[in-house]
Amino acid sequence: MGAGDENQPVYHKKTFENIPEEKRRRILAVAIGEFANKGFDNANINVIASKAGVSVGSLYKYFNTKQDLFLTAVHHGISILEDTIGPLSQADMDVREKLEQIIRAVQTSSRQLEDLIKLYNEMTSENNAELVRRISQDMETVSAAVYTKMIRQAQEEGLIRGDIDPRMFAYLLDNLFMNLQFSYACGYYQERFKIYAGDDILSRDDFVVEQMLKFIEGAFTMAQEKTALNQQKSEAAGETLSR
Asked: Is 79's pLDDT higher than 70?
């Protein structure tokens, strides 16, 4: 989540940019589906080329390696998700409205871009340490900055508690959104969602939004409410003693 192709590293050759956009999109869509469903190690370049309607030789004219094709597919997918969700976190609205819009965008995009979410999930299970490092550095830096800024601004405006660490809460917040993505797009997470929240949970979008907002708001405001409650108790006790 975050913003923009201009911030993304380039893993393809210049020749890939010279082919028609429709052809580029077709190759990336097929690659995303193959990597999402087979994983990096088991994905087959021959299968990708065949389904995309190009030769294997042509693919290697566009990408030096299978890893470069994978990374290009990943960044293409991430840029779509960033364009869908990223601007909402920076919109001119209060923090609760931002959170609601982000949650609803996660619900919608996870269904419309199922293969992208599956690919995102697949990346989290990769055993290639260097590949994981490159992906996480490229894709998480932007969202970390966006959510941290959103939380800091809300603290400055007095909308959420001031004793939380914005970077740590940004991490926890992004984990919630990531898990929600997987819960709408990935088989295991869908079944897990049903076990915890009921068999019909995938059709109860408004309920999910409502409950997630309550959960997040509780984390953002609990200390303040507890302090207020303790103050009320102290004042009540003082009034009793003064009688």
From this structure: yes
